[in-house]
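Throughout this chapter, every protein is written as a compact record of paired, labelled lines. An example of such a record is reproduced below:
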Amino acid sequence: MDFQLTEDQREFRSLLRSFVDKEIIPVAREWEQSGRYPTEIVDGMKQMGLFGITVPEEYGGLDLDPVSFALVFEEIARGWMGIAGILGSHSLACRLIAMHGTEEQKQAYLPELATGQRRTGIGLTEPDAGSDLQGIRTVARLEGDHYVVSGAKMWITNARYADPLPVLVKTDPGASPAHKGMSVLLVDPSLDGFEVTKDIPKLGYKGTESCEIVLDNVRVPREQLLGGVEGRGMQQVLSALEWGRVNIAARSVGIAQRAHEEALAYAQQRKAFGKVIGDFQAIQLKLATLATNLQAARLMAYWSADAVRSGRADGETGMAKIFCSEVALDAAIDAMKIHGGYGYSTEFEVERLYRDAILMSIGEGTNDILRTVVAKALQRGETVVG
């Protein structure tokens, strides 16, 4: 086993860390509290080529290996998890198009998506369908050379910037099982009937918008069907979501890393009863547990990313997303406890880490749903444990 990053990966991580330290950390708390959109940070990520991390090189992207992909989200989330969300949904959609799009679709979109000239997201979740994607109600009826799409989507990251927006629909609502009647359409947001109706207020995960979208008889050209064949949408989405779970696991590690840094620094400078609180055994136990779990989560995230390189990895990515997200929340809570009353103040970083960490156990499939995914992979013999 090799638990070391390659030289290229270490250099890439150093570049990312420098960007985060200089461009994100100094402004994150102020901009998050004011609701300011991080335009300058997005421009910096464009210049670094980060919008092309899942785009093949022949279309102008970086086409990162899965471990390097994880490093991007770990480092950016260490600075501000919401910024990682801007890149996460975009990268997932790019991966979807790169893996399953027709050559015409790839040529039309991927070069501009790689530079950030275009940005995108992915329209999956609905008011009555979250982790249960087969329960979506958005329908696309084929009329001549257009699909007429009606429905609504919720919690869509990058909704106001996505062009195109891949949208999961039912092209055959009567299909049994339901996934056989599901497809993905690449929807142009300028089409009549497509409307971003509102931004959803959130406890955390700020810096990027999460929106409700209504599709009211939107006429989408038939050639915008991803891959050109109906009925493959669920399989297409699930293959991309493996990368999405690596993304969430890595973001969780980034949150936990920042919680560790903030807790350690505070314990070494805060004094009580005549000495720094880091000298008290109760604080030492929390610091040691936080650091130990953080390193275990990091290794789990990289292990799952490496498994994606080898093919289907539902079990591995599910395990990593579950474990890392729960470590992130525990780390944020322990960091808050080490800070005492100051941890509850918006003047310190840890309260934001706590608010952001909660989402990690919910996004990309709730942890309880993913436990069933892991169990099924184990029973199929697809995940090796031991």
